[in-house]
Design brief:
This protein has seven helices and seven strands, in the order H-H-E-H-H-E-E-H-H-E-E-H-E-E. It is an alpha+beta fold and 172 residues long. The protein folds into two domains: 76 residues, Arc Repressor Mutant, subunit A (Orthogonal Bundle), CATH 1.10.10; 81 residues, Beta Polymerase, domain 2. Helix 3 packs across helix 4 and helix 6 packs antiparallel against helix 7. The chain is elongated and about 50 Å long. This is Transcriptional regulator.
Length: 172
């Protein structure tokens, strides 16, 4: 659905890259390799997004690195739209609904790094999780968001480089 609003596939991939997790940053050649596109197409979109103030650029050794501008007035809106586009809002809602005593939900793997590979890796931390609900939930979520979902369960909290979608102690 977002593809009809943002017609440039490169721009959409850049927004996913930088707004699914605002800690993500990259440079032109890395993005060209990751997306399998020409540097010219990516440079054009990076320049447009930077001129609009949506992305920031800074020198990183001999390269220019780009990342989301968290101070942009539309940052939260863009982040929420991208997460909704990826189905992360529905995923989190379904997890918290009846899964049990969930302490933490983390997004790990490709998507946490801004790579939309069609697979979502989720770590759910908690005690007495409802495993029967989870079995049925996986297929239902995959149908809803049109992506493969892989759940990993832990009873001990994780300090991870992944993206925290929910943390009971912090109130996220």
């Amino acid at each position: 659905m977002l593809e009809s609003l943002i017609t440039s596939k490169t721009r959409l991939r850049l927004l996913v890259k930088f707004f699914v997790n605002d800690r993500n940053q990259s440079h032109l050649r890395g993005l060209a390799d990751e997306f399998g596109e020409s540097t010219n197409a990516i440079r054009k979109e990076l320049n447009n997004l930077t001129q609009a103030g949506i992305l920031l650029k800074h020198s990183d050794k001999n390269k220019i690195a780009y990342q989301a501008n968290t101070h942009h007035p539309f940052f939260t809106n863009i982040r929420d739209i991208i997460r909704k586009y990826l189905g992360l809002d529905m995923l989190l809602e379904q997890i918290l609904e009846r899964m049990g005593e969930v302490e933490q939900v983390l997004l790990v793997g490709d998507l946490s790094r801004g790579v939309d590979s069609g697979k979502i890796d989720v770590v759910v931390v908690g005690d007495d999780l409802n495993h029967e609900y989870i079995k049925g939930l996986t297929k239902r979520i995959e149908e809803l968001i049109n992506r493969k979902v892989i759940f990993t369960f832990r009873s001990v909290r994780l300090e991870s480089s992944g993206l925290v979608l929910f943390d009971k102690t912090v109130g996220i």
